[in-house]
Amino acid sequence: LYQRLSEVREENLRHSQLATARENLKHIFTVPETVERTKILIQEGKLLQAHQSLVDLENSRDDLLYELHRLGHSNTDDKDLLKEYFEAVDDLSALLQKHLGVIMLRAFATVRKNPHELVTALRIIEREERMDEDCLYRQRQTGFIPPGRPKHLKIKCLERLHDSISQKIEANQLETRDENKMWLVRHLEVIRIIMLEDLRLAKHHFVPCFPPKYNIFQYCVSLYHTVVADRIQTIIDEGLEGQEYVSLLQWVEQTYPGPDLMGSTSLNIDKHLIPPLLNPELVETLMNSYLQNMRENYSSWMQNAINLEKDDWESEKNPEVDMDGFISTSSPVTVYQMVDENLQVSATISQELVYKVLLLGIEQVSDFGRLYKTAIIEFKTEYFADRKRFGQYTRYMIAIINNCDRFEELSQDMKERWWKAGHHESQSGGTVKLEHEQLLKTYQDIRELSVDYLLDEAFLDIESYFGDLFTARWQGSTQAIETICCTLRDYFQDYQFLKPKNLHLVILNAQNRVARKYITTMLQPNLLKRKISPVSEQDRKNVSSQVKQESMRCKSFFKEVKEMAAGGMEDYDSPFDTIALLAEVLAADLEMMSLDLGTLCQRYPDITHDQIFCLLLLRGDLGSRQEAQKMAEDYVKEGGESKPLHARSIFSQVNVSASLNPFAN
Asked: At what angle do helices 87-105 and 77-85 cross, to 10 degrees?
């Protein structure tokens, strides 16, 4: 039956082809005229009419090609001839696509001035999308697909929207780094303005124009996010300098998600739906680069601050006096201003960066302390090599001591302002605490060292008078101790410029140093120093009486000094009471001496065997050194102390030896 009907089928096919040819005859003969008319419609902006004309031409071509496809002949000459005849239709389709692309390229401007034009373009795109679907369905059924299908006009036009955004972002860099150091700030601000305005347009003007399935507002948000992220990446790849790290991080971390852009109330985007502009790894890399740049700047700044400080020390001008009448220099404020400025900047970026900058700042202030200490040691060494070189040594050493106190105060203030307990304890918090404690210790050590250097100057002037103690010249004369007290009184006139806390420290150190040197001179035997040697009980009483008087004189002097100190000072556990007790042992007869020695050891458990031994030798009434040594061992074993310690006395600072070595002291 199939073979019998073959002629019928062929006749039916010819009839179908003739019907198709007849139906499209008018289009076939008028293709050139229709193409020209359609071009004019496109140029006049009558895109819907132009599109309808194009559709008619494409349908005529596609129907004829389909009939040829049905014939199933392998000879393609007829198809090629037909395609060549309709070649202008392809050009016409490309021209219309170009115009639609231009409209999408200018969509943000068009939607404000002529939204009808944008809607027209979208209607054409939607029609073409439906025709693409129909053609693909027909291909699945018959295997035939018209030339140029699918056109994917929606994808192409949305790509033009992407191109539009890319061109806006890339083309708004107004100047280069060489032309303006603020180029990046200006560039990012223009990006913000353009992006915010376009997203407002997308939300309020695009949405009514675009079909709902486009989800056009979210699509524009995604487009801008991608394009801006790419632009930021390009800027990073080209290299950043100095404050550009700050500008970029501020914009990425604060401006972009903040109320001035994505968080704007005019956009009404859920903040939880705003993705980060850069991935966390890249942000971390930027922060580390910023911190490294900051570290390099600190090194330069800190060295400059040290150099300025040293210039002041070498000058003849007096250091600054603050409102409270205390001497200081500008170094602490200068250093902490650097740190605080960086902390303020980091606070505009993220809290995480604040902790990193705080930690770096603490480290750098500690490093400054080490530089400061080295400079102070050089200052002291050069001064004592030539005391005429620095005319203001005393006052600048006072300023240094006060500076240490100021460093500690500013450090504590910085920690309280910027370090929040409980935040990041497992990360930087614990480290910040440890580093801060180390910083405080650094400046406490510098202060103690500087106090010693300050007193070294005064004690250098009175050193020879300590050498006169317990010599023949000393007996019966108060000149040595009076000179020591008068000289120290003169120096304490300058020391009044110390802050109370520091003045108290200087007074205690000076008091202990006087007592230490007195006790050392009293106990230490030395062949180079012709010390007195009491030979009778009366001699011992005379020496003891003078020692008591001098201990009282020193105690009285330091009591006056303490009363002069701002706020006053408690006068307890004076080391000069220790000297008076030594004098009691010196004057006691042999029967009472054991009781006095027992009292001495009980009151001062840190007294050593050698100290007792030297005291017994000074008495000069024991039969031999061996006897004195044995008696000393009855109270304290050689090389030890009398009993376990709870608090150390002046004896812990006194080093004496029973040796006659002149360098024992």
From this structure: 50
Helix, strand, or coil here: 376? Answer: helix
Amino acid identity of residue 660, one-letter, is L
Q: Are 502 and 496 in contact (CB under 8 A)?
A: no
pLDDT band per the 50, 70, 90 thresholds, residue 6: low
Q: Can you give the length of the chain in residues? A: 665
Average pLDDT of the segment spanning 300-306: 93
How far is residue 620 CA from its own chain's centroid? 68
Please tell me the distance from the alpha carbon of residue 625 to that of residue 487, in angstroms, as a whole number. Answer: 38
- Contact, 608 vs 619, CB < 8 A? no
First to last CA, the chain: 137
SS3 328: strand
374-383, 429-438, 551-560: segment of lowest average pLDDT:
429-438
d(CA 211, CA 317): 80
Helix (H) or strand (E) holding 407: helix 393-418
127 band by pLDDT with thresholds 50, 70 and 90: very high
Q: In whole angstroms, what is the distance from residue 291 CA to residue 353 CA?
A: 9
How far out from the chain centre does Cα 581 lie? 58
For 588, residues 6+ apart whose C-beta sits below 8 A from its C-beta are 595, 596
Region of 417 (left: φ > 0; alpha: ψ -120 to 50; beta: rest) is alpha
Say yes or no to pLDDT of 400 above 70: yes
Query: Tokens at residue 147, please?
Result: 């030339």
Give Cα 215 to chain centroid, integer Å. 42
Checking if the pLDDT of 15 tops 70, the result is no
Q: Give the integer Cα–Cα distance in Å for 338 and 362.
A: 11
- Those residues whose C-beta lies under 8 Å from the C-beta of residue 389, and which sit 6 or more positions away, are 382, 383
pLDDT score for 351: 87
Which amino acid is present at 478?
A: T
pLDDT at 73 over 70: no
Give DSSP secondary structure letters for 138-150.
HHHHHS---TT--
Of 577, 579, 576, 543, which is closest to residue 470 (Cα–Cα)? 543
More confident: 266 or 647: 266
Instruction: Give yes or no for residue 68 having a pLDDT over 80.
Output: no
In whole angstroms, what is the distance from residue 373 CA to residue 26 CA?
102
Confidence at residue 662, expressed as pLDDT on a 0 to 100 scale: 46
- CB within 8 Å of 26: residues ≥ 6 apart: none
How many percent of the chain have pLDDT more than 70? 89
Rounded Cα distance between 648 and 606, Å, is: 6
Residue for token pair 């408690």:
570
Taking alpha carbons only, the member of 402, 372, 392, 371 closest to residue 457 is: 392
Closest CA to 245 of 336, 345, 173, 341: 345
Give Cα separations from 54 to 103, 104, 128, 330, 569 (angstroms).
19, 20, 11, 82, 104
Contacts of 618 (CB under 8 A, 6+ apart): 522, 523, 525, 534, 586
pLDDT digits (tens, 9 = 90+) for 497-514: 999 999 999 999 999 999
AA letter at 208: P
Residue 467 has pLDDT above 70, yes or no: yes
